[in-house]
Specification:
The chain is of the alpha+beta class. It contains 8 helices and 9 strands.
Length: 225
């Protein structure tokens, strides 16, 4: 058995369901996608009860997870070369999530375009968990020259609260943006574009419920030509 398989077997079913919840955005969102009552989903997430086979299938389908992995923790057999890649790299999903709209999870209606390879060492060094990472592409020129149209940014979904001034992927008025956020003295939040041609926006404290922080941008990359 490979190290990858050993690690997978070591995880409990509850651990794997929590991973699926992270992929969906939250346990509540996983409940919505599967039709499983939230109280029942919480019991699965806490390891207090185990789902029936039909519920496991619904959970796996909701986040496009491998059903064999979800049920048993076992990863499919890989040849030596593939195993080495899996052990050295994590593969982060790149979503076409600029089209995401509505009040569900930010990935609703989005496709996984590809998966970006990052060494496990580099992620571990930055304190990042692969299960809580996702990538999206930047639309428009509002953050030139820091971020250009078509650039890819990687987001740490676990950092979904404002923790110091930084770039975050946010959802406002049902649209996604990559913006710098700054907390104001009166409790509001200033949304700043790197491109000075775009005026900053301010979300007052009493309207913060309209601002959803998807996660903090932890990596950005794009073509130089």
């Amino acid at each position: 058995m490979s190290d990858t398989e050993s690690q997978a077997y070591a995880k409990s079913l509850g651990d794997r369901i929590r991973t699926c919840a992270g992929m969906a955005g939250s346990g509540e969102e996983l409940s919505r996608r599967t039709g499983i009552p939230l109280s029942t989903m919480h019991s699965y997430l806490n390891g207090k009860s185990e789902p029936r086979a039909s519920s496991l299938v619904s959970i796996a389908q909701a986040v496009q997870a491998d059903i064999e992995w979800l049920v048993t923790g076992k990863v499919r057999a890989l040849d030596t070369k593939e195993t080495a890649l899996e052990e050295e790299y994590s593969f982060i999903p790149l979503y076409d999530a600029h089209i995401s709209q509505g009040h569900g999870a930010w990935t609703d209606g989005a496709r996984v375009l590809t998966r970006l390879a990052f060494t496990r060492y580099s992620l571990r060094k930055k304190g990042l968990s692969p299960d809580m990472l996702a990538a999206v592409r930047v639309d428009g020129d509002s953050n030139e020259p820091v971020l250009s149209d078509g650039d890819t940014v990687m987001v740490d979904l676990s950092r979904n609260a404002l923790q110091g001034e930084a770039f975050y992927v946010i959802r406002l008025d049902d649209l996604l943006y990559a913006k710098r956020l700054q907390r104001l003295y009166d409790g509001g939040v200033k949304i700043i574009s790197a491109n000075s041609a775009y005026e900053p926006m301010t979300v007052p404290q009493n309207q913060l419920s309209n601002l959803e922080i998807i996660g903090r941008v932890v990596w950005a990359g794009g073509w130089m030509i």
